[in-house]
Structure formats: structure tokens, C-alpha cells
Amino acid sequence: MLPMTDATAARRAPHDRRRGLMLVLSSPSGAGKTTLSRRLLSQDDDITLSVSVTTRPMRPGEVDGVDYHFIDRPSFDRMVAEEALLEHATVFENSYGTPRAAVEATLADGRDVLFDIDWQGTQQLADRARDDLVTVFILPPSIAELERRLTTRAQDSAEVVAKRMAKAADEMSHYAEYDYVLVNEDVDRTLADLEAILRAERLRRRRRLGLSGFVNAMREGAGR
Ligand SMILES: Nc1ncnc2c1ncn2[C@@H]1O[C@H](COP(=O)(O)OP(=O)(O)OP(=O)(O)O)[C@@H](O)[C@H]1O
Ligand SMILES: Nc1nc2c(ncn2[C@@H]2O[C@H](COP(=O)(O)O)[C@@H](O)[C@H]2O)c(=O)[nH]1
């Protein structure tokens, strides 16, 4: 178990002190993970995005270091060899991976980490740290709407959109491996459901490091 830093411990009441959790969002491409992640991150200071490394080319509007760390193949292979990635996978012919150091630093601070990763990466994280993991699969309301979203996002060529649509059925077959499944029809409603999941998971007894000390102190007080 990772200890919290003094700064985070001081910010929280004793009964609110807890270990950080890892919240994973997966979906077929275009179902809305990035949209939901941005909304969640903008309104919750206790969760930070894990910025992945990728060998995929940058899309218009993406920012290096914010959306991804865009790296070349030798750099990616070096990170794998040095075990600098918590998980990694090939998705749509490109390599993606989660830098280990940033995740460990955030969890050690008692804060949560949000991951936008595919089912392969989720399985690897589950093998390493199942107790710290909360996994959510996002489904589109229909296949026609998924295609509409990928097309109107207007960031990928028709060929790339076709490849992503071709993989959607395979991706969706993994929904049952996840703790929660949300159908992202209305984005406000889906975001509210995601917030509810995060709120409840933060309250789980096993994550609440300060609870036993808090209860013991009250019990001692009651016995006087
Ligand atoms: N509930 C929704 N209703 C309508 N449009 C949506 C909804 N959620 C997301 N979108 C739109 O669908 C498009 C795809 O969304 P987004 O980029 O968030 O998907 P993604 O799952 O992150 O895709 P990828 O896996 O390719 O990164 C975007 O243009 C986004 O604005
Ligand atoms: N296993 C991992 N999957 C990742 C990671 N970062 C992103 N992804 C997934 O890749 C696809 C495509 O993403 P895109 O940005 O190119 O549209 C999507 O399913 C992401 O969730 C990662 O570090 N590891």
C-alpha cells in the first residue's frame, strides 16, 4: 500500500483519508471516453488523467504532453524494455502505453488516476492491482450513432473511421469484463452516472486509511 504525502493528508479530515484509486474508461473508438474524461477532470481536483505514450500520429487539435506523449517507435520500445510502462498494447496498428512513474506518484499522494485505455491494458492493470482498480465500459446508444460520432468528429480519414468501425464489435465483446457499463446516449446523464460511481468507490471501506484510527479514537472517548 502506498503512503499518502503530508500535503494530501493535511487537506483531508481523518475519516476522509484514503488511498487513491485507478478509474479506467474503455469503449469502442468514438463512444465518448475523451469527452467524458475532459468533463470529469474539469470539475474534480482529486483525479488526474494518466497521459499515455503513443506512436500514433497527432490529430488536429491534439497537444503533445496533454492528450498524449507522442513518441517514436525506438523510444516506445526503450520504455517497454526499461519497464517504464505499467501496461502497453497495440491498438489500430499503433502502440500505446501508460507511463508508470506519474501514476505511482499520484496514487502515493492519495489522489485518483483516470485512464482512457483499451481492454488489453485494463486486463494488465487488473493483473497488477485489482483492488485499486474501478473499471467502466462505455457503450454507444447504437452502431449508427457510433459511426456518426466518428465521422462528425472529423479528425480521422474515412479509411481510419472504417477500420475503427470494423473493430467496434470485437471491442464491445469485452463489456462483461468491466465493473460498470454505461450507455452514453446523453452526455450529461452519463457524466452524472460516472460521478456517482466515483463517489461510491471513494467511500469503500478498504480505501479509507483513516477510518480505523477515527473509530478507535471515538471508542476510547466513549469508554471514559
Ligand atoms: N453523448 C454524446 N452525444 C453526442 N455526441 C457525443 C456524445 N459523447 C461524445 N460525443 C461526440 O462523439 C465524438 C467521439 O467522442 P470521443 O472523442 O470522446 O470518443 P472516444 O471514445 O474518446 O474515441 P477514441 O477511442 O477514438 O479516442 C466526439 O465528436 C464527441 O463530441
Ligand atoms: N492499452 C492502452 N490503450 C490505450 C492507451 N491510450 C489510449 N488507448 C486506447 O487506444 C484506442 C485508440 O485511441 P485514439 O486516441 O487513437 O483514438 C482507444 O481505445 C484508447 O482507449 C494506453 O496507454 N494503453
UniProtKB/TrEMBL annotation:
Residues 20-199 form the Guanylate kinase-like domain. InterPro entries: GK/Ca_channel_bsu (IPR008145), Guanylate_kin-like_dom (IPR008144), Guanylate_kinase (IPR017665), Guanylate_kinase_CS (IPR020590), P-loop_NTPase (IPR027417). It catalyses: GMP + ATP = GDP + ADP. The keyword Transferase applies. GO terms for cellular component: cytosol. Residues 1-20 are annotated as: Disordered. It is found in: Cytoplasm. The keyword Cytoplasm applies. Its main location: cytoplasm. ATP binds at S27, P28, S29, G30, A31, G32, K33, T34. It comes from the Bacteria. HAMAP family: Guanylate_kinase. This is Guanylate kinase. It comes from Tistrella mobilis (strain KA081020-065). The gene is gmk.
